[in-house]
Amino acid sequence: MQTVRIGFMPLIDCAVIAVACERGLAERRGFRLVPSREPSWAAIRDHVAFGMLEAAHMLAPMPAAMTLGLGGPQIPMIAPLSLGRGGNAITVSEPLYAAMEAVDPAALTGPRALSARALARLVAERRGAARMRFAAVFPFSCHYYELRLWLAAGGVNPDRDVELVVIPPPRMVENLASGLVDGFCVGEPWNQHAVTQGLGRIVATKADIAPEAPEKVLGLRRLWSLENADIVTRLTEALVEAAAWADSHPAAVADLLAKEAWVGVPASLLLPCLEGTPRFGPQASLTPFPGYQGFCDGPTNVPRQEQVEWLIGQMILCGQCRDTAGETIRRIFTPV
Question: Does pLDDT of 260 surpass 90?
């Protein structure tokens, strides 16, 4: 029985991989799926690039960056499947939230996409002081693009007014607690973790900033996928089945992801995200938010064309690639 090693990060949207592994969906299709919990997105990129993993849970821009040779070796990739939608949020520290509320309370009660207007007021007041520091999970991530879009919508220049750094998702909360960052954009459950510990508040979500944006995908080396076309077909079938099951069994998924081998946080932290009732602040009630986190995206989970176009636009806007790279990127996100 052929083995496929698949890397993942401890996030709620690794659920599709977790369900496929724990429910034996690969074995039913004649191959073995072996999960590998990874410490960072850079580790996933490198382990896929150098053949230590055959497949991986990836940020949607990662296969494009790898194919173009951005930030690492140039490795042609494909991303035939979406593994998750939603789940990202921007969380700021409690001291920063209090300062934003003091200078512009209306900005924090209006549309969340414009809540950075309060931050812009602070930046103006603190001109000449040390810049505030915000983290995203990887330079080639929708988190990075969404954080920049949120800042810019509020009148904050993301290149001049603040400092942007990269921190792996599981390390976000400890860096917020220590004061090394003032806020971050990360996938769940790490926003909920900061909120329930009284360390921060969610000021905007992916749905507020870029509802059309993709999120996580299945990343495969193009050469490996051509040499193992039958396995790739069976792998995608298993993951599509897992996505449908995960969307319809939120409590079971929460219990599964609570295991140390997967995400390793209490199920009580995971379930509100899966049920669409996240908490935005330490004293806030659970907020009805249908579709906050999900796994199915159409019957085949193939990344949609509008998602790919959004991604290309953001990579160009951030100066990560030229507009001539568009056609190369489009070919990455095609069904097998």
Answer: yes
DSSP string, 53-108: -SEEEEETHHHHHHHHT-SS----EEEEEEEEEE-EEEEEEHHHHHHHHHH-GGGG
Q: Which residues does 171 contact at the CB level (< 8 Å), separation at least 6?
A: none
**Residue ranges matching CATH 3.40.190.10 in the chain:** 2-85+215-273+289-332, 88-209
CA-to-CA distance for 244 and 2, rounded, in angstroms? 25
What is the third-level CATH fold of 88-209?
D-Maltodextrin-Binding Protein; domain 2 (3.40.190)
CB 60 within 8 A of CB 214: yes
| Token pair for 5 | 């090693």
For the entire predicted model, the pTM comes to: 0.96
Predicted pLDDT at 96 = 98
Residue count (the chain):
336
pLDDT digits (tens, 9 = 90+) for 209-235: 999 899 999 999 999 999 999 999 999
Residues 6 or more apart whose Cβ sits within 8 Å of residue 219: 44, 48, 55, 56, 57, 58, 62, 63, 66, 77, 78, 79
Torsion of CA 124, 146, 169, 184, to 10 degrees: 20
pLDDT (tens digit per residue) in 14-61: 999 999 999 999 999 999 999 999 999 999 999 999 999 999 999 999
**pLDDT per residue as tens digits for the range 150-160:** 999 999 999 99
The reported pLDDT for the residue numbered 298 is 73
Q: Hey, what CATH topology would domain 2-85+215-273+289-332 get?
A: D-Maltodextrin-Binding Protein; domain 2 (3.40.190)
Q: Going edge to edge, which strands form the sheet with 162-166?
A: 162-166, 132-136, 183-187, 88-93, 200-205
